[in-house]
Amino acid sequence: MLPTALPSFSRKKMSTVDTAWLRMDSEGNQMMIVGVAMLGAPISKDGLKEALTTRFLAFSRFRSRVVTDLGGAWWQEQAVDLDEHVVHTALALPADGGSNKAALQLLVGRLSQQPLARHLPLWQMHLVDRVVGADGKVGQALIVRIHHCIADGVALVGVFMSMFGAHPDAQPHALPAAAVAAAERNPWQQILQPITAASVKAIELSSALWLKSFAMWADLPHLGERLGQLGQAAAQLTQDAVKLTAMASDSPTRLKGKPNGRKHVAWSEPLPLAEVKAVGQAYGCSINDVLMASVAGALRAYLRAKGDAVAPDCALRVMVPVNLRKESGLQKLGNAFGLVPLVLPVGIEDPVARLREVRRRMDQLKGGYTALVAMSVLGVLGATPKQLQSEIQNYFARKATAVMSNVPGPQTPLYLAGSRLEQVMFWVPQSGDIGVGVSILSYNGGVQFGIVTDDALARDPERIIERFAPEFEKLLLLALMDQA
């Protein structure tokens, strides 16, 4: 037993944005960020607990349970017993001597649907022994589950990576008190700094103003018109708000529907990040453009393999989290991001034409206030009755097929208790009736795709994952042929 005793327990009010995520749990979707870290050599449970004590527990949110009352939601600190948060388990070794990745994916899927204990701080880790990779080597996996109300994916990946060191003999050390204090400040104090004060005043994005105008949410078809009344100087904001709230539904496919809460998870082997960069340079596109086009191609190939007709105008909308934090070397907890809708041109057969169309659509989204509008909406929803939040949340969810995240990780190898971090993957949760989540994460010169699907929509996410690499390789081959 390794409890962390605190001399006094503080109680802090939860922001409305974080409250919105707290209340999004449903039977179909748990609002957890789920991660898997593959370790080259086993570490002990005590070694993991030491890293958690110095890094995770430095942040009060990992020491606090959530309590609610008529005044809202609160972070209530308490003594933490890490044995209640760290589970040590093992997989069965395959009889044929092959990989047991499928068994690990099954475990991750099962944990993705299990709620976290509400009487404890909302996080848990499973240290899994006897994980056999495709190369036959026996390693270890660390499965991480953290509720989204604690922080968003960018913040949590940063905090998680901070447990690791750049050398095998690196020891975890406590974060400076000033760094912890800065990380726990309200993220709203940071996210608007990149925008000029005059713009903020013109845009009038305060929660109070949104709440005073909240009656407009009762009439969603006329929401854009009402937003236009919030300030003539906010023309761009109004335009983006209209686009966000007046989105047409994307193409109906087998990947849209009512989730039942049973999850299936799969992830790819890493692709060389240098090759992704080379393809982007060859076509004048960003790395994100190339990756998103590969996702669109994989989804198209999967649907066709299922025998579904994919019309040339078939388009699947994915909600992409956009980080709104100011650049900083400090990890900041809380949720400071907005969701931007990207429509993937799944119907385009030609890989290069598909890539160029993705680039065009990505360019259209840049420079606007869509992400800021989306985050402001979350802030408002967290201050409204839960039933109304659910209705508005489901309205937006019906317009999309998936949530997609792209998180950059360190590009040098990391170590924990002497064990090298070989691979890492995180998934963000899906809200409402969205039943597909796609994640892209780069680490140590590689980039990996991961996917989580709901049982009601797709029980074989590995059939989607196995198509990402071939779709990228098509672009790589065509780029090489163009340069020949």
TrEMBL record:
Residues 14-290 form the O-acyltransferase WSD1-like N-terminal domain. It catalyses: an acyl-CoA + a 1,2-diacyl-sn-glycerol = a triacyl-sn-glycerol + CoA. GO terms for molecular function: diacylglycerol O-acyltransferase activity. Pathway: Glycerolipid metabolism; triacylglycerol biosynthesis; Lipid metabolism. Keywords: Acyltransferase, Glycerol metabolism, Lipid biosynthesis, Lipid metabolism, Transferase. It holds the Pfam family WS_DGAT_cat. It comes from the Bacteria. Its EC number is 2.3.1.20. GO terms for cellular component: plasma membrane. It is an enzyme of class 2 (transferase). Belongs to the long-chain O-acyltransferase family. This is diacylglycerol O-acyltransferase.
